[in-house]
């Protein structure tokens, strides 16, 4: 007897719209959180990968948003380089609003003309205090020996 294949549940479009609306009005950083929802939904990016993304990867020096973002193997799961595409209009709109917040609060601000005045090496996503998310290293013991991997932590 074969067991039926169990699939993860996914959000219906109306549930997703509701999630974005709720995040846009009920959280401490609505612009950031709306951007996080849109970018993870439209690109499939993982939280740990997103925490490592910097301004220089997402913006051209002119300040325009890059439609194609290259992920080096050091950032991705399974250490395979890949690209993500920031082409969904709502995702780009949410990114623009988040970048405006960063410039207005001067988080990672250099004052230069390039990258909208933001430092290209500063992380794209920040905590509500204006600090980059930290990556915690987890340790687990396998039969083949110890393994260390990273995961995102907002501490």
Question: How is this structure best summarized?
Answer:
The chain is of the alpha+beta class. It has helices at 13-26, 30-43, 47-52, 55-58, 89-105, and strands at 68-71, 82-85, 134-142, 145-153.
Describe the structure.
β3 and β4 form a beta hairpin. It contains 5 helices and 4 strands; from the N terminus they run ααααββαββ. The N and C termini lie far apart (47 Å). It has one domain (13-127). It is globular and about 65 Å long. It has helices at residues 13-26, 30-43, 47-52, 55-58, 89-105, and strands at residues 68-71, 82-85, 134-142, 145-153. The strands form 2 sheets. Strands 1-2 form a two-stranded antiparallel ribbon. A two-stranded antiparallel sheet has the order 3-4. With 155 residues, the chain is α+β, with helices and mostly antiparallel strands. α1 (13-26) runs antiparallel to α2 (30-43). The longest helix is centred in the middle third of the chain and has 17 residues, at 89-105.
Mean pLDDT comes to: 86
Q: Rg, please?
A: 18 Å
Which consecutive residue ranges, at least 5 long each, have pLDDT under 50? none
Structural class: alpha+beta
List SSEs in N-to-C order. Answer: HHHHEEHEE
Q: What is the straight-line distance between the termini?
A: 47 Å
Morphology: globular
State the helix count: 5
Helix content, binned percent: 25-40%
